[in-house]
Amino acid sequence: MSSTTTGTTTSAAPNPSSLSPAEAKGTGTGTGTFTLLLFASASTFAGGLETLRFPAPTTLRGVFEALEARFPGMRAKVLRSAAVTVNLEYVDFDLDADADADAGDEGARGVGDAPDDRREEARGSGLDLVIRDGDEVGIIPPVSSG
């Protein structure tokens, strides 16, 4: 059974018009929404929600800030150890480096093994990766079984 929420979720997300020029690079002029999928403990931490919709464009950093604002403690307890995908491609990011550097560029390495470097540059990288209208972002915490 899937849980979805809209409406109130959008108020917790960053306002696309408040993006800095660096964050907005390559986002175009339109706005829309993207889908955020929460798996395993991320869903549990969010009260069982599995799918959320947020306004686009934003950045991965903006997504994390919105999640922390809506679900206090999620950054430390879930996001710090989670893998993240954007449109089924893993994103390399370093939340510890972001805490140490205001710009958050330390440790950010871009989108997986993206074959098209121009696409990666247009979207940004790491925590500055631009999330666009129609994108699908997945938060995948580590799982174990036994």
From TrEMBL:
Subcellular locations according to the entry: Cytoplasm
Modified residues (1-thioglycine): G146
Gene3D superfamilies per the UniProt record, alphabetical: 3.10.20.30
Keyword Transcription regulation on entry: no
Post-translational changes noted in the entry: C-terminal thiocarboxylation occurs in 2 steps, it is first acyl-adenylated (-COAMP) via the hesA/moeB/thiF part of UBA4, then thiocarboxylated (-COSH) via the rhodanese domain of UBA4.
Biochemical pathway: Cofactor biosynthesis; molybdopterin biosynthesis
GO annotation, cellular component aspect: molybdopterin adenylyltransferase complex; molybdopterin synthase complex
Highest taxon, organism lineage: Eukaryota
Main localization of the protein described in the UniProt heading: cytoplasm
Modified residues (Glycyl adenylate): G146
Residue ranges of the region described as Disordered: 1-26, 99-127
Protein family: Belongs to the MoaD family. MOCS2A subfamily.
Self-association and partners: Heterotetramer; composed of 2 small (MOCS2A) and 2 large (MOCS2B) subunits.
Name used for this protein in its record: Molybdopterin synthase sulfur carrier subunit
Provenance organism: Cladophialophora immunda
Originating gene: cnxG
